[in-house]
Amino acid sequence: MKVKKIYLNNYRNYSNLRIDFSDGLNVIVGANAQGKTNLLEAIYMCSIGRSLRVNKERQTINFNENRAEIIVEIERKYGKSTIDIILSKNAKKTVRINKIPIKKIGELMGELKAVFFSPDELKLIKESPEDRRRFMDISLSQMSKNYFYLLSKYEKILANRNKLLKEELNKTTLKETLDIWNEQLATVGSKIIYNRINFLKSLTPYAKLSHKYLTQDSEELDLEYVGIIGQDENEIKLKFLNEINKNFDKDIKLCYTTVGPHRDDIKVSINGIDVRAYGSQGQQRTCALSLKLAELEIIEKLTGEKAILLLDDVLSELDAKRRKRLLNFCKKTQTFLTCTDFKGQADNIIRISNGKAM
After folding, report:
1. Do 144 and 3 share a structural domain?
2. Which of 280, 190, 270 is nearest to 230 (CA)?
3. pLDDT value at position 254?
4. How far apart are CA 257 and CA 263, in angstroms?
5. Is residue 139 domain-shared with residue 59, that is, in the same domain?
6. pLDDT tens digits along 134-179
């Protein structure tokens, strides 16, 4: 899988831009605040259908304009395709694949598989469980449209259950009504958990190898799923239902559902020590990068297609040895790397200044 070209019109600080990319290492060089990250954001939006930087995507439209457009041309194993995203300040976002509008964002999942890493991704290790769940969910959704639809279905069931918990009903009536939602929540939730557990089992060996590679065998990384565990969906569902019933009074008191895949986490350890609690910032950064590089490997293993790698201002955060090792790893797939200065070999160097490719 390769991104061959990108067209940007009124997106962020780009009025009109077209760039052809190499199949190897594409280095995007420029001073700060010139639009390097905006370019990676646009590519990644064509992968997952939304911006990771803002909730209101109309903010990505050039300030003086009402409409923006992103078009990427992709070359895949089975031929070429285009992804087109039209953003408007006055209308809903339109996503098209080969000029045909899609009805649901799930249809976009997997069309352009991409792994994104920036210094902000430190939150993958350092911050809340939500960030680690999002990591699993984005990766799994790129590999399986069905998983994406399971998440959407689960969120709707969860919202209905939480709404019911806020209503003033007597316990008997509430328990009887909740039982209906509990069954649905556990049925869908167990499928999500089972997929995540298997994903983490597949990811862990690659994450260990990536981490050893980056640290020159000085540290041992380990990953553990924190939540309801089971050997199959049925066992997970039974445990899920048991936990929901145990937490009945607690859920009523708090007015939300306190157990399920929306509460689960990943424990990340180095040499048996919890990195989130006790790791240095350098260790946390290397762990986050190891997970992302492992994600790249697992996508290829499970789908037969290489994902593209987007690295935003990563080199400045690494020492010389780790920079060299990372750049060597980048040879495995098409890579987009932003930096303020680059000394090394690249297949394509693009200089960005004030929203223009020089």
Report:
1. no
2. 190
3. 92
4. 9
5. no
6. 999 999 999 999 999 999 999 999 999 999 998 877 778 888 889 9
Residue 272 has φ and ψ, to the nearest 5°, of: 85, 0
263 within domain boundaries? yes
Task: Say if residue 95 is in the same domain as residue 79.
Answer: yes
39-49 per-position pLDDT tens digit: 999 999 999 99
Token pair recorded at residue 242: 């048991």
Structural domain of 204: 125-304
Classify the C-alpha dihedral 88-94-96-100 as positive or negative. negative
CA distance 328 to 100: 38
